[in-house]
Design goal:
This protein is about 25% helix and about 20% strand. By secondary structure, the chain is of the alpha/beta class.
């Protein structure tokens, strides 16, 4: 584990780890495996509700601690209402508002037609960089 690193990483589902066609975004497994191996806890959340089906269908269950409904407004205030027991340390989302609210990595929605979508690799770089800064 990287010292002083944010431990709880929350990934959005739609347009972040899933494409509009509901396919798993390139590098998702690699990123989940790497950051999990570094000791980070991975959570999945979505504005449309708890998405365990996505986690299970795409083989992400070995990495994911839990799933939650993502607050779409009054982000911090709604955590308790949505039964999220702590504030995320780092979020990964395609929505700038969520990243501004909690801090994390903004990734653009994936373009389905491209085979060279490496946007999720930025998550690993950001977590390592943040940990190095302490």
């Amino acid at each position: 584990m990287l010292s002083d690193a944010p431990r709880r990483v929350f990934f959005d589902v739609d347009d972040t780890i899933l494409t509009v066609e509901k396919r798993l975004r390139r590098h998702t497994h690699d990123v989940f495996a790497e950051i999990s191996g570094l000791g980070f806890e991975i959570y999945v959340w979505s504005g449309v509700g708890v998405r365990w089906e996505v986690v299970e269908v795409h083989g992400l269950k070995p990495y994911v601690i839990d799933c939650y409904t993502k607050p779409l407004s009054r982000h911090h205030e709604r955590l308790a209402e949505l039964r999220i027991p702590f504030v995320p340390d780092h979020v990964v989302d395609d929505e700038p508002e969520i990243v501004r609210a909690f801090g994390g990595t903004l990734v653009p929605a994936p373009l389905e037609a491209t085979g060279n979508d490496d946007a999720l690799l930025q998550v690993v770089r950001d977590l390592k960089q943040r940990a190095a800064r302490g």
